Amino acid sequence: MRIAWFDCSSGISGDMTLGALVSAGWPEHEVESLPDRLGLEGVRVRVSEARRGPISAVRVEVDVEGPRQPQRKLDDVTALLARADLPPRARERAQEVFRRLAEAEGRVHGTPAAETHFHEVGAADALVDVAGAALGIEGLGIERVHAAPPRLGRGQVRSEHGLLPVPAPATAFLLEGAPVEIGEVEAELTTPTGAALLAAMVTDWSAPPVFRLERVGTGAGARDLPGQPNVLRVLIGESETGAGSGGPARGRVAVLETALDDENPQVVGALVPRLLAAGALDAMVVPSVMKKGRPGMWLIVIAAPNDAAPLARMLLLETTSLGVRVRHEDRYELERRVDEVDTPFGRVALKIATLPGTGERAVPEFESVRAVAERAGRPLREVSEAALAAWRARGERTR
């Protein structure tokens, strides 16, 4: 698996991210072509070499030569990105970044996300920064993003709303649940755009697994900082665990636990599928004996680290729990994909796992099996066995 680790010791902004990706090997012409691909008139992107303290880096700047950019709302930005010449995955990631920005700005100003004007982050430079970061991540083949806790800075920053405290209110909302550092520098180190990129891209805030370092990119911030180089570094490489290396991939998950001894079991039973719909990777309920011998339930939720905070909030709001324990653990994961096969009863979905060095293993998806069995009026086991037989037969034909 190709991973990237962002070193945010001097914070992060959109232009620093673009510079780091170009420095890491993303072609300059790709970032320079962004205004045309986004349909932005009078906008030009310049890529140059810069020096911040003792470190050489790539500086990316967006020049707006035409009329003042319009104030855009979320729907305007979403529509602009939908029309843009971007691959589907990059478009979706860019739209997700702006969705998070809209929600954060809405919380700051007390307005619905859809009604929030982006101001600075709806301008041409932010559109180029966000779309470019999404395109660069895809162009460099990065599948998983890790990051060090970003430094936020302190003091005040001037905006269209006047002076704002640092970290800017939107930045603080965007990084809720993430580890951060304030630092000693009186400056805005992490911008709202940079925070939104991290919130949307980072799958794990912990140190990445062991990986073979292949590329290092260094992006320059707009100015020099006292006492430290104002750069963002990105380290890119191939994880040394995974199907290609003969072993399972190592990932990181959050484990949420809470014990319930005064909750209606029907409430918990209804909550489990809602937790899964909200992003949990797995959820389970274990009967247990609580203090004073009372019967109770142990509710366990497995989630991506970035989803831990909203899922914990959901548990606290929708159960009688007074506290949720959260810990982060490594886990080894088999690569998997979903496939479909034709059976005499209908088309059935299967989950295919890649086994290190020994081929693949298929398991029919239960909901798919149940739907096909109900339509055909056949037993579940018969439909499941027919799906496995069809999958094995297809494998024999392709050998």
Note down, in words, how this protein is organized.
By secondary structure, this protein is α+β, with helices and mostly antiparallel strands. It folds into three domains: 2-240, no CATH class; 249-333, Alpha-Beta Plaits, CATH 3.30.70; 336-398, Ubiquitin-like (UB roll) (Roll), CATH 3.10.20. Helices cover 35% and strands 31% of the residues. The protein has twelve helices and 16 strands. The protein has helices at 14-23, 28-32, 34-38, 74-83, 88-109, 124-139, 169-174, 192-201, 265-277, 308-318, 366-376, 380-398; strands spanning 2-7, 43-52, 55-64, 144-147, 155-159, 162-166, 202-204, 211-220, 231-239, 249-260, 282-289, 295-303, 325-333, 336-343, 346-355, 359-364. A five-stranded mixed β-sheet has the order 7-4-1-9-8. A hairpin with a 5-residue loop joins strand 11 and strand 12. Helix 5 (88-109) crosses helix 6 (124-139). The longest helix has 22 residues, at 88-109. The radius of gyration is 24 Å and the shape is globular. The model has no long low-confidence stretch (mean pLDDT 89).
